[in-house]
Amino acid sequence: GQQVMQIPQYQHVQEGEDFTTYCNSSTTLSNIQWYKQRPGGHPVFLIQLVKSGEVKKQKRLTFQFGEAKKNSSLHITATQTTDVGTYFCAGPSESNTGKLIFGQGTTLQVKP
Amino acid sequence: DGGITQSPKYLFRKEGQNVTLSCEQNLNHDAMYWYRQDPGQGLRLIYYSQIVNDFQKGDIAEGYSVSREKKESFPLTVTSAQKNPTAFYLCASRSSRGPIYEQYFGPGTRLTVT
Fold first, then answer.
1. Is residue A38 less than 8 Å (CB to CB) from chain B?
2. Where does the pLDDT of residue A24 fall: very low under 50, low under 70, confident under 90, or very high at 90 and above?
3. Which end of chain A has fewer CB atoms within 10 angstroms, the N or the C?
4. Which pLDDT band holds residue B97 (cuts at 50, 70, 90)?
5. Distance between CA atoms of residues B111 and B10, nearest Å
6. Are A35 and A44 a contacting pair, CB within 8 Å?
7. 3-state secondary structure of A82
8. Is the CB of A59 inside 8 Å of chain B's CB atoms?
9. Distances in Å between the alpha carbon of A11 and those of A19, A22, A34, A40?
10. Under 8 Å CB-to-CB from B79, ≥6 apart: which residues?
11. Measured between CB atoms, which of A98, A100, A104 is closest to B50?
């Protein structure tokens, strides 16, 4: 079945270092979404990418959607302790676009 | 103040008991979802509903039931048939109007069954 995979599963960085998480889909996606879940919290929508090769920035966060629309990445420049949490990518299901298929998430720990 | 509410935040039950988790939204969203999250895991879809009086099974529906009698409400019942019910349960909703179809999540209910 359709799968969305993320790597790495965990990442520990020193504050100020950069961080990247990668998302790969088994199928071509019409769009990809990214969510952040703080420890003990709930997922919060960050962004949606739609176009092939699209790059969007939100302050220190850079999101990319691959040319083939099967992969995506989230890069954080100069991490801060407020970046701690789990980052999920998600794409619409082929069988029902009302459903999202979530990746397993990448948990980021930042040492001050 | 629009949003999704889930209650209670923490719930404790004995094995063999059914338990119903509440989810209410005032965002006027058509679609609603229930996910289960286990420690260190991603989100697994239990049930979803795209319109009132209609719902579909997700990937892990066994041992769960839902109803969607009102647009605002999508309660989830964890039955005694669910073999491993202890988990974090998240409810979400989504607008049917584009162009962005993000899901809005409630604060979640942590269910512990002993």
1. no
2. very high
3. C
4. confident
5. 6
6. yes
7. helix
8. no
9. 8, 12, 17, 18
10. B18, B63, B64, B65
11. A98
